[in-house]
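Researcher: Good morning. I'm working through a list of sequences from a screen, and I'd like to move beyond sequence-only analysis. For each chain I'm collecting a predicted structure so we can compare shapes side by side. This is the next one on the list. No need for commentary yet; just the structure.
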Amino acid sequence: MRETIETGPDGIPAATVVIFRNASAGGPPEILMTIRSREMVFAGGMAVFPGGRVDPADFDLGARIGGPLDPDEAAHQVAVVRETLEETGLAIGLSGEIDADKARAARNFLQQTGELAPVLDHFGWDLDLQQLVPFARWFPKNERIPRVYDTRFYLADLGTGAVEIEADLSENTHLFWTSAQDALAAAEQGDIKLIFPTRRNLERLALFDSFAAARAQAEAIPVRTITPYIDESEGRSWLHIGEDYGYPVTREALETVARG
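Model: Good morning. Structure tokens for this chain:
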């Protein structure tokens, strides 16, 4: 997520992805999280999901690919594919002859070009955006934080998860697989730090015992923009997200909320 753009009235367009894999010993599925560099203006030092802002080249490619998605939605999904490859080395949302060596080479090529389209051309790959499932959209435009992102969240599945990952060491310092419940427990113990949207999304993800269950709920609940708001009750200030978005926890006491 590049930090050179200033927040406008419509927020900074961004996209992030929750990548699932089967747990090796059974049990709840694992998801991929990353620790952001402490030097980053937004969510520095926090545990988040892979992703970043939507670049102009993503909008260009999204407008060119056609298909059932409108260009704006396509651009966000392109950004997920690009940012995931750049940050983690995983090739999701892509089809073609892909193996660990080619994914590594594609990541290096992407870091040189900064755009996904040349990578597709160079390796003969195609976008397969049906691998991405729209999950949520968060736009905290009422909050006083350094960067206000209008972020779309997606789900993707790796199945067995027999893949290589490696942090980019610029925006992110560490990548790790964890169940959603274990991530929440780690946050309670102080081992990781979570901003408000990440915590709420982990609570929602902890409801699911498989990627199929997560996908079913995501497809049953239309994505609507969540704009947290503050109200007063029980003698305290609360940050709310509203109801009917699929989240089991819909508020948190303002004094405990971690923001970007």
